[in-house]
């Protein structure tokens, strides 16, 4: 048996019926009187009735909203009632009665106009109040910003100013929530695969006493997750109990900000010498574990580096202090005796670990081939896997792959910080002072983003790149973990970094041209000494096969270039692939067919046709005629060659 309607439901049903009638009334008024403010009134009433009828639970929402209209709205219900009475009287059929009540109707109409005008006046007053509030908020923001600037300019370890101390206390009290206090540690990572070896190595170092450990690696490689796993490991909890402090240092841009932040995490009241406060507090504890996460934010600044390294040295003079820092890059701060053996910079996850991470987030109900394509795009970088897996969980593999073709890394860059925005994480590494201090580093990274096979030191020197300090640029990229040395001893960058650079910082032709010339000469050398120098030339071309295709494709897309040399090089690469059988270049040949120069050099093309026919061993190679014969026999090629 259906439940009886409540008293509120009965009232709201009655109100709904009245509102439907009111819509017609207001629309009639709008048509007859021409007042523009009737339109929003009508739209509001229609929205209320629609919500009442269609949305579950909408009745209670509308009841609350109508109460708000009654007690705090700008347009009083009695005004609406008078409008309804006026229109109802005008629609009556007795003209004599209307004439006799003319004076009454005029009075009613006047009251309606007064009520509407009052509502309009209230609206203007509320708008003015809102504008004033916004101005006050902007003024307060400017004042707070100036306070922070004053703090940064004036605060130092040696200052004796009570004003500075009180100012810092105010900023800290308003800037850091309770989540950053000593009692609130970050949670244990719930999905943690592929770092078991590193975790075991760190725990082994704790068996030697209180270690000093630097967890290094590229942005998004899982340094913070590894530190959190150490923080919550049962052995560490047994050793240090409540004396475990995890400080997120990414908000500290200078040495004074860093020490003030640590003081806050320790639960201390800021004094005149915060560095000594920290030292004395730690010395008074029997044992303590201090983790400084993302320390590179302040350490990278040249003006702060020496101070921070001296501060770390003071900390590590305390024998019972275990110190762990996480930093982007591959170099450790100086002046600290880091515990041996050093922990290697974190590398991408192994495939099995990457697959487990993906499945834990996105589930198992995905096509294996599509999942492998997704993981290839991430290059097994933990942050990229996490973001892509969450996207797949909501949209599916096929949709994500189709969107990736156009959006690239921006597809997983909607977050607000480095842990939820891939582009932001990469951009933070690119903006590092270490990168900015060495000219040419950005240019080399943009070139590496075009080279899937990477590049060797020998090729860097022989290609005559327009960068005088090329080895210094290489060292900078390695120090910041924007690049790495592969198992083949080649300088490479991860796929997410490649995609970010190609989208936001594409390589310039000036830096690509020397390497293209080097590859072109290498291919010509192969054809010139056909078979006689294979032992030397073939491995060099093979190691750069994807690089050559990438540069040739890039040049074929540049309309302003003369494509003759590019096309000849593409044909030479095609001949190489036919003869060695190491790979195919059919997608590249599609671009060649669309980019052929006019008039066509028939002799050169015929030589390749004959060469390809002579080498044909695979039916798939028949496609070479598909690409070349239309050019030779077509009208743009001058007809049938002789």
Automatic annotation (TrEMBL):
The keyword Hydrolase applies. The keyword Nuclease does not apply. Pfam families: nSTAND1. InterPro entries: nSTAND1 (IPR049052), P-loop_NTPase (IPR027417). Keywords: Hydrolase. Signal peptide: none annotated. One of its GO terms (molecular function) is hydrolase activity. PANTHER family: HTH-TYPE TRANSCRIPTIONAL REGULATOR RV0890C-RELATED, REGULATOR-RELATED. This is P-loop containing nucleoside triphosphate hydrolase protein. The lineage of its organism: Eukaryota, Fungi, Dikarya, Basidiomycota, Agaricomycotina.
């Amino acid at each position: 048996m259906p439940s009886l309607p409540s008293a509120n439901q009965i009232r709201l049903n009655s109100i709904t019926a009245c509102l439907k009638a009111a819509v017609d009334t207001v629309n009639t008024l709008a048509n007859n009187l021409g007042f523009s403010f009737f339109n929003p009134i009508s739209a509001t009433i229609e929205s209320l009735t629609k919500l009442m009828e269609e949305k579950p639970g909408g009745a209670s929402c509308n009841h609350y909203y109508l109460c708000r209209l009654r007690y705090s709205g700008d347009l009083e219900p009695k005004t609406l009632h008078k409008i309804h009475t006026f229109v109802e009287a005008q629609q009556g059929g007795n003209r004599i009665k209307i004439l006799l009540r003319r004076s009454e109707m005029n009075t009613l109409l006047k009251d309606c106009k007064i009520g509407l005008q009052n509502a309009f006046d209230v609206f203007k007053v509320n708008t003015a109040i809102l504008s004033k509030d916004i101005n006050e908020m902007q003024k307060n923001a400017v004042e707070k910003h100036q306070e922070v600037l004053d703090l940064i300019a004036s605060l130092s370890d040696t200052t004796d100013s009570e004003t500075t101390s009180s100012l810092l206390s105010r900023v800290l009290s308003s800037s850091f929530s309770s989540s950053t206090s000593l009692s609130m540690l970050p949670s244990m990572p719930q999905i943690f695969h592929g770092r078991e070896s590193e975790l075991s190595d760190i725990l082994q170092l704790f068996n030697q006493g209180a270690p000093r450990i630097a967890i290094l690696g590229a942005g998004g490689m899982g340094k913070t997750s590894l530190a959190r796993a150490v923080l919550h490991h049962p052995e560490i909890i047994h050793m240090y109990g409540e004396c475990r402090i995890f400080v997120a240092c990414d908000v500290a841009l200078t040495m004074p900000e860093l020490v003030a932040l640590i003081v806050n995490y320790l639960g201390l009241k800021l004094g005149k010498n915060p560095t000594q406060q920290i030292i004395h507090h730690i010395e008074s504890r029997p044992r303590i574990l201090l983790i400084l996460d993302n320390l590179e934010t302040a350490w990278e600044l040249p003006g702060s580096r020496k101070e921070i390294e001296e501060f770390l040295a003071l900390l590590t003079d305390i024998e019972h202090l275990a110190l762990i820092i996480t930093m982007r890059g591959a170099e450790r701060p100086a002046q600290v005796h880091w515990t041996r053996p050093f922990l290697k910079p974190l590398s991408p996850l192994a495939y099995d670990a990457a697959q487990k991470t993906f499945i834990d987030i996105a589930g198992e109900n995905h096509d294996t081939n599509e999942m492998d394509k997704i993981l290839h795009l991430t290059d097994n970088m933990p942050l990229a896997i996490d973001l892509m897996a969450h996207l797949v969980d909501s949209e599916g593999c096929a949709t994500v792959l189709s969107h990736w073709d156009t959006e690239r890394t921006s597809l997983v860059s909607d977050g607000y910080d480095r842990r939820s925005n891939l582009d932001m994480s990469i951009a933070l590494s690119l903006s590092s002072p270490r990168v900015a201090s060495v000219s040419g580093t950005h240019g080399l990274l943009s070139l590496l983003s075009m080279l899937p096979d990477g590049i060797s030191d020998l090729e860097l020197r022989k290609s005559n790149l327009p960068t005088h300090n090329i080895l210094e640029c290489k060292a900078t990229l390695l120090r910041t973990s924007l690049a790495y040395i592969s198992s083949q001893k080649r300088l490479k960058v991860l796929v997410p970094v490649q995609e970010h650079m190609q989208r936001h910082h594409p390589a310039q032709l000036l830096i690509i041209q020397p390497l293209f010339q080097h590859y072109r000469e290498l291919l010509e050398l192969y054809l010139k000494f056909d078979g006689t120098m294979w032992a030397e030339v073939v491995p060099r071309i093979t190691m750069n096969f994807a690089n050559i295709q990438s540069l040739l494709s890039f040049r074929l897309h540049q309309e302003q270039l003369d494509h003759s040399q590019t096309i000849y090089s593409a044909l030479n690469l095609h001949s190489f692939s036919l003869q060695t059988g190491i790979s195919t270049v059919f997608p590249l040949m599609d671009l060649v067919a669309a980019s052929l120069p006019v008039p066509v050099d028939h002799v050169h093309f015929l030589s390749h046709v004959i060469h390809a026919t002579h080498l044909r061993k695979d039916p798939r190679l028949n496609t070479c005629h598909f690409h070349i014969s239309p050019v030779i026999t077509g009208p743009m090629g001058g007809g049938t060659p002789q």
